[in-house]
């Protein structure tokens, strides 16, 4: 049993019990709900035809910032060098439940 959700401009394949790092989201009471569902599969090779009211809920385990990525720009013979660092903020989420067509799949 798994679902494909879209959040933060990316798509994730999630199943109940999975822990994943997504783009930082605001969560109220440490509960996050994903309603942008692209596909749900209850058994191998078969997908749900109707995704009306489908949602995925999860619990926020923590928030933080990822490893530093260095961006270095250089043009030879022009005396041009630029170095910039970036750390992307993330939210760590544990998927609790996938709900579709009145059926609930829990961890």
UniProtKB/TrEMBL annotation:
GO terms for biological process: translation. Keywords: Ribonucleoprotein, Ribosomal protein, RNA-binding, rRNA-binding. This protein binds to 23S rRNA in the presence of protein L20. PROSITE patterns: RIBOSOMAL_L21. The keyword Ribonucleoprotein applies. It comes from the Bacteria. It holds the Pfam family Ribosomal_L21p. Belongs to the bacterial ribosomal protein bL21 family. NCBIfam families: L21 (TIGR00061). The gene is rplU. This is Large ribosomal subunit protein bL21. It comes from Granulicella rosea. Part of the 50S ribosomal subunit. Contacts protein L20. GO terms for cellular component: cytoplasm; ribonucleoprotein complex; ribosome. GO terms for molecular function: rRNA binding; structural constituent of ribosome. InterPro entries: bL21-like, bL21-like_sf, Ribosomal_bL21, Ribosomal_bL21_CS.
């Amino acid at each position: 049993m798994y679902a494909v959700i879209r959040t933060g401009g990316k798509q994730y394949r999630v199943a109940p019990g999975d822990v994943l790092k997504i783009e930082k989201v605001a969560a109220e009471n440490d509960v996050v709900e994903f309603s942008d569902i692209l596909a749900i599969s209850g058994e191998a090779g078969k997908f749900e035809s109707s995704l009306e009211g489908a949602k995925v809920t999860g619990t926020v385990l923590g928030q933080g910032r990822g490893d530093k990525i260095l961006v270095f720009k250089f043009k030879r013979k022009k005396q041009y060098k630029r170095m910039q660092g970036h750390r992307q903020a993330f939210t760590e989420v544990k998927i609790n439940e996938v709900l579709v067509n009145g059926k609930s799949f829990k961890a």
